[in-house]
Amino acid sequence: MKKKLMSLIAAAIISTTIISCSNSKKESNTPEPAQQEILNYSKFSKGNGMIDSTLVNLVIKDNNVEGKMLWLPDGKDAKVGILHGTKNENGDLNLIFEHFQEGIKSNDSMVIKLTPNQMIIKDVWEINPDTKIKTPALDARDTLEKSTTDVIPKQWNQRLERIFNK
């Protein structure tokens, strides 16, 4: 009887040890894989019989942001390029818009606020490629509406990937 009782106690200790070890493996400090959020925004403006379009695709993973942007006014001076930057502690996006405009590569610095249904371009600074001095571009402030579909056409995605090696 004593042997049986000792065997039961030993079995209970062994199973408790095995259970606690397996639970500690489940509670490891391994971080969960980051969730990726893909967002699309667009705006189409009519004026003087012309249509201006702005299309944006954003990929947010943790606090890192990448994307593509097409600013296509009817006529000349289109800006097409990529976005990259970070999401700050208050949720705003601090981005660099690396783009081509009339064959010249340039960068703009942008602050963007996201709401459930909109992307608000709060501030934009054009960065002089030679001096690196930022100049406010007040006319670039805008509000785009959230879209449920990919707004950047496939041919533009391929073109931007080829140009920017992304």
TrEMBL record:
PROSITE patterns named in the record: PROKAR_LIPOPROTEIN
Domain of life where this protein originates: Bacteria
Descriptive protein name: Lipoprotein
UniProt source species: Chryseobacterium polytrichastri
